[in-house]
Write a structure and sequence with these properties.
Length: about 325
Amino acid sequence: MFDPEVPIDDQGVVYHIAAKSADIANKIILVGDPGRVPVVAQYFDKGSITFDHAHREIRSITGTYKGDRMTVMSSGMGTDNIEIILHEIHILKEYNVTTKTWCKKEDIPKVLIIRVGTCGSPRPEADVKVGSLAVSRYSIGMDNTGSYYNVDYSADENIGRLVKALQSTSLAQMMPYVSAADPEVIAALQSAGVRVATTRKVITGVTASGSGFYGCQGRLVGRIGPTVRIPNLVDILSGLELTTTTGDTVKVSNIEMETSSLFRLSNILGYRSGAVCSIIAKRAGQVREFASAEESKASIACGITTALEALRSFASS
């Protein structure tokens, strides 16, 4: 029987992921598309897969990459699905189904999660091309999923500055929230990206997450287009800049649909998380384009290897 508040059965199988704690590694790659899970798993060591299961849009495969145990899991599309995934990882890693108790703070495992995805870019610069990789430093939640959770970011002045910059734009009416990636995961992704994506630009910036693909990301389509509340969303994001406490300038590098919720909940749980996305659409500047199937595939492959190498750089727990 499931507890309606903590939906895990007496056998330790959690409701949506449909897996037990032992099935899921502490190092996790999250992808949106269930079809991308076996693509990532192709990089695992031969004969190392110990778990392969699909339930709804969530498919999970666990194996080893260069001897390091990892899980690749699909979330489906959207910040709401990420909310489900993070809660159920939390349950699997920290809830004892026998005693019906949560583990002590000192026993919380070191969980690392990296999202590998695709995105569009609002950057108008000529050198920001499709096929580039976007590494997230901060995320702007243009959805409402993260708004249900409180996080104390008073120690990070840069988040306050970014929130203030957002409040000066018409995007303020959507009450956006800001969350942060783990600094060490950012550094690991940057380092791995430079080694792996030798012919591609690796851009570190702010990721804007919408709760949908069309009006939520400023696309004005057909008869629905005139109803979009913020029709100049891409222009707003193109012009948004954060001058950090160290004096460097950080811009919005990409737009997608999952990262804000991942960072928000990871920050609450104390899990380390980051994101690397392949830019497959350029939505600003003189040349606007969508990557070819071949270019998308090659860029995604770079993103996958970057994430795997970044995870591998951390000691296993």
